[in-house]
Amino acid sequence: xxxxxxxxxxxxxxxxxxxxxxxxxxxxxxxxxxxxxxxxxxxxxxxxxxxxxxxxxxxxxxxxxxxxxxxxxxxxxxxxxxxxxxxxxxxxxxxxxxxxxxxxxxxxxxxxxxxxxxxxxxxxxxxxxxxxxxxxxxxxxxxxxxxxxxxxxxxxxxxxxxxxxxxxxxxxxxxxxxxxxxxxxxxxxxxxxxxxxxxxxxxxxxxxxxxxxxxxxxxxxxxxxxxxxxxxxxxxxxxxxxxxxxxxxxxxxxxxxxxxxxxxxxxxxxxxxxxxxxxxxxxxxxxxxxxxxxxxxxxxxxxxxxxxxxxxxxxxxxxxxxxxxxxxxxxxxxxxxxxxxxxxxxxxxxxxxxxxxxxxxxxxxxxxxxxxxxxxxxxxxxxxxxxxxxxxxxxxxxxxxxxxxxxxxxxxxxxxxxxxxxxxxxxxxxxxxxxxxxxxxxxxxxxxxxxxxxxxxxxxxxxxxxxxxxxxxxxxxxxxxxxxxxxxxxx
Length: 491
Known about the structure:
Layout: H1 9-13, E1 15-26, H2 65-77, E2 81-82, E3 85-86, E4 88-92, E5 102-106, E6 112-121, E7 124-137, E8 141-145, E9 153-157, E10 164-170, H3 177-194, E11 206-216, E12 226-231, H4 234-253, E13 261-266, E14 271-277, E15 287-288, E16 295-296, H5 299-307, H6 313-324, H7 328-334, H8 338-350, H9 354-371, H10 383-395, H11 400-413, H12 417-424, H13 432-445, H14 447-454, H15 461-471, H16 478-490
Parallel strand pairs: 12-13
Antiparallel strand pairs: 1-10, 1-11, 2-6, 3-16, 4-5, 4-15, 6-7, 7-10, 8-9, 11-12, 13-14
Helix pairs in contact: 3-4, 7-9, 8-9, 8-10, 9-10, 11-12, 13-15, 13-16, 15-16
C-alpha cells in the first residue's frame, strides 16, 4: 500500500484529481515494424538486430503490413475513428538505447482518434475518451547493474529496438486512481480479445505512464501535471496515483508550487521520486519521416480488418446473460479471457442447466483456485468437467456433498473431473427403504432433538438431515431425505 503524505480529509475534499493515461502495447507480429528481425522475447542480447534497427547510415525502413492491421484492429475495438491517411514522424531525443537519435512515431496525423472505453464506477457507467491511437517503434533497453553502489555498469540490449508498438492516449477524463485501475483492466481485456498483443507486463508488452494533476473542486482549468513512468503493474499504478494526488495537495496547501516533471514510483517505499523535467511536444522537434510514404488505410482495407474483429467482451457479456440466464457477476468472471468464455459456452451448450454450470464455477471452482494461488486457466477441472458434474447433480446421480468430495480429489490428484469420477464412481442412494432405515436409526439415537421438533422447534429438521447425510457418507439423495424425514417426524 502506498505511503501517502499526511493531508487532512478537509484539504482532500477541496481538490479533485485529473488523470490521463498513456499505454504502450507491443504488437504480436513475428518481425519488427520496419525490418525483418525477430520480435521474440528472451533471446540473447543484441542477436535480433540488423542495420535498420541499429540505425546504421543508409539503412531504410520498410513498414510491416501486419503491424498496421493489428493497430487498426485495436483502434476499431476501442471505438476509434481510423484515419484513411496518417503520417509517420521523427521524434528526436537522445538516449543510449535509441541508436538513431530519434524514434519513428506519429504526431499530428495519427492512425486513429476519438475513441472511448466504458467503465463501471461507484456511481454507474462512465465513458473514458481516447484521444488517439498511433503506431511507433520501440526503443532498446538499458540494463543497469551495480546501482546504487560505486561499481556501476550499464549495458544496452537492442533486441527490442524496432518492435512495433501502439500508443493509446486517454483523455483526462479519469477522476480517481480506482477509475484508472478499471480503465486499464478494461483496456487490457479488449486488447487481449482482439489477439493483437499478449499484454504481458512482466515482459514489457504493456507499459503505462500516468499523468496526474489536481485542481480546486469545480475549477475548469487544469493544475500543473506530473508524469509517473515505468510502473509495472496496475496495482502499483493505482498506488502511485494515490501518492501523487496526496503529494500535490500537500504542496499546494503549504503554499508551494507543483513542478512539471517526470517521476518514478518506488513500490517498496510506496513513494514517487523526481526523475527529470517533463518534456513538451516541441522539445522533441517532430517532423515528417522522409523515408516513409503516408500510410493509407482505405475503406476496403478497413472493411477487411473489421471483418476479423471478434465479439468483444461487453457485447459478449450482454449476449451470454440473455442466452444462458446467468448473472452479471457470473459473466464478469466467465468472460475474463476469451479462452475461458469459449470453454464456458461450449460447456453450457452441452449441459442440461447452464446456470448450474456458472454456479459451480463460482461456488466450487474459484474458491479452490484462489486457495491454491492458481488462475482459472491452471484449473485441473476443465469447463467440460464442470458441465459433466453439473449434469450429474441435476440428474440426481450425485449429491452436492459428493460433488465437493470429487472436486477435492481432482485438485489433490491434478486430474480432470471425468477421470476422477470414472475411477471413484460414487453412487447416490435413491432406494427409499435404505434411506428410511438410516432415518430410523438417526431418530432413535437423538430423542432430545425429536422432542424439540415435536415441541414446535421445526428448524431441528436441519440437524436430522445433516445426521442422515453423515450416516450415509453423503450418498443419500438429499431431496428424498428431506421428504422422508418430514413425513417420519410428523407421524
